[in-house]
Automatic annotation (TrEMBL):
Pfam families: DUF5753, HTH_31. Residues 20-73 form the HTH cro/C1-type domain. GO terms for molecular function: DNA binding. This is Helix-turn-helix domain-containing protein. It comes from Streptosporangium canum.
Length: 275
């Protein structure tokens, strides 16, 4: 049990953590000693063992080198079982499970769609339904995962969420008109929260054409972390040069954003068009 959520004792992530702890204790290594070999913190090792953190492929490879397949355990194979689990790609799960929930400030830019944190269930379902080879079960699992992500907005102390969206997003038809009306209503409602700001960006903003991204400011002096979108796989990093590049791009896009009061009027006007 961690953070109020029960964990499936048979899940690949729980098995990964259990084997990691078993082999660490058999080798008489502390969590700190393993952390130094993995290039992470003792807290992260603890979370791996408790299955509250998703391991990366490099975690698995380093553990295999450390324990040298003791008892026939292959952490890379266990990792492969983890990423085969439903609920969204594993590279995004690290962001959704670790970065977003601990962020103090989240800045996002999306030139094509309403960002996931502010999507309605109907809007998200329509997007996932049109994914290549989407099965009904996979669609529902991804919708549920998206709705769970949004729970951070309902916390007593939610992150400050600053959203920039291209003006074209308001008129890009995702599902029937009813879906679009519901989505724009939701944008207007969520904008009333003191922790959420939504600004519409002029469609002539060329710096935004490079694609969607999110910037997370984290507590305790942790480095700013970026999630940059691509069709196949998102990129999560705190590399200084990459972060600086994305922050500069965000500021360049923000120069093309309408003030929030005007942005909300624009959303209201387009909402009436969809009626």
């Amino acid at each position: 049990m961690d953070g109020g959520h029960s964990l499936d004792p048979g899940s690949p992530r729980v098995l990964f953590g259990a084997e990691m702890r078993r082999l660490r204790e058999a080798a008489e290594l502390s969590q700190v000693a393993v952390a130094s070999r993995l290039g992470c913190t003792q807290t992260q090792v603890s979370r791996l063992e408790k299955a509250t953190r998703t391991p990366s492929r490099s975690d698995a490879e380093r553990l295999d080198r450390l324990f040298e397949a003791a008892g026939g355990v292959s952490f890379v194979r266990l990792y492969q079982h983890i990423i085969a689990q439903p609920g969204g790609p594993v590279w995004f799960r690290d962001w959704a499970e670790e970065v977003e929930p601990s962020a103090l400030v989240l800045r996002s830019w999306d030139p094509l769609l309403v960002p996931g944190l502010l999507q309605t269930e109907s809007y998200a379902r329509r997007i996932f339904n049109l994914e290549p080879r989407a099965t009904p079960q996979a669609v529902e699992e991804r919708v549920e995962a998206r709705m769970r992500r949004q729970q951070i907005l309902d916390r007593d102390n939610p992150p400050f969420v600053l959203v920039l969206i291209d003006a074209g997003v308001l008129r890009r038809k995702v599902g029937e008109a009813e879906v679009m009306c519901g989505q724009l209503d939701h944008l207007l409602e969520v904008s009333e929260r003191p922790s959420v700001s939504v600004q519409v960006v002029d469609p002539e903003c060329l710096p935004g054409l490079a694609g969607a991204f999110m910037i997370a400011e984290l507590p305790n002096g942790q480095p700013i972390t970026i999630h940059a979108d691509s069709p196949a796989q998102g990129h999560v990093t705190n590399d200084c040069e990459f972060v600086a590049s994305i922050q500069e791009r965000y500021e360049a896009i923000r120069l093309w954003a309408y003030p929030e009061r005007i942005s909300l009027k624009m959303i209201e006007e387009v909402r009436r068009e969809w009626t």
